[in-house]
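Annual report, structural modelling task.

Input specification for the magnesium ion complex:
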Amino acid sequence: MRITSVDAFALRFEPPRGADLASARASGSSVLSAETDSYGDYYIHRGEWTSIYSNRFETTVVRIETDGGVVGWGEAQSPVSPRTSRTIVEDLLRPVLIGADPFDVEALWQRGFGAMRERGHPTGFYVDALGGVDVALLDIVGKTVGKPVHKLVGGRFRDKVALYAGLSGTDPEKVAAQAREHVGYGYRALKLHLRGPRERILKIVAATRAVVGPDVQLMVDVHTTLDVPGAVLLGRGLEEHDVFWLESPVAPEDIKGQSEIARALDMAVCVGEWSRTRFEMREAFERRAGDFYNFDIGRTGITEGKKIASLADTYGIRVTPHIGAGGILSIAASIHFSAAIPNFLIMEHSHGSHAEKMKICSVAPEPVDGAFLLDDRPGIGVEIDEDAVRRYAVA
Ligand SMILES: [Mg+2]
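The model returned the following structure:
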């Protein structure tokens, strides 16, 4: 079996989230609120030196076809600038892949990774692109042998993948209302994306805890907006409300600071969504910069993700896959990964945007009572609607 074509599509979903954006701004949501600086289609939270976000849903999907006509799909998660990942796939990875055997999954990742390592590209968009290719190859292998991907990469450690849902906002009552709604959908774990003054964060958490009661797990993600003393102070306040983990307290590069926060607090600290390889994570694991690691399979791919999980396991660290703005193929890849590792904890999910992410497929996993149930569909288990992919692809 040989690879005969490799294509990538930079997707930007239209119609844009303009209507949602307006209503979110009106309702005071902090993710899409007036507290942002706008840069064309993108925005950054005002007064922060953190992530740029898109007003729309953007990502890059990879399509690989073999001489036998088997087509595999993967996603190089690209919440902004999907054309960058597309170019990497088309200009750099396509020539390496054409004519290769798609079963050489790990060897092909290594070939691609090694190709740009000496030039200083061991992470970022380049590795995202490699990850999308990795998932597309595993999709081909699974479809060829008639097995779901998790059966190819370790097997089924569990029958369902537990989820937590994400919420955000600046108004305690509105966030609490969203939390109640999500508990109604069956979620038993919720993560609050909160920014701004500590007192406001604690008020929102208190209001949410009051509504959901003691049995729903709450997590708080502050998106690297704090310093070490600020994170410890906030964490002590969150512990009063039985918050399960504090996520991304300080800058990704500050491994020592993360470690100090994790040691100072009784509650768990979760870090790592920015990391893509075991090489990047080794020092953080050694220094125990967090209790849980939330690396993202839409960035690592499944093959490297398995290696990272294995390394984490040697340090007794549990893995809680990040999804963020990942699309349906990122979600599907994360489900298979989560099924196939011993040290899985819980996976992220965005209940509100799932229908939107389903726009490019006819069949895909859908959550039931706060979990994805595993099935035996071969490959990654997503049936892509190619017409939709081409419709949403940008030039
Ligand atoms: Mg996060």
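Confidence is low (pLDDT under 50) at residues 15-32.
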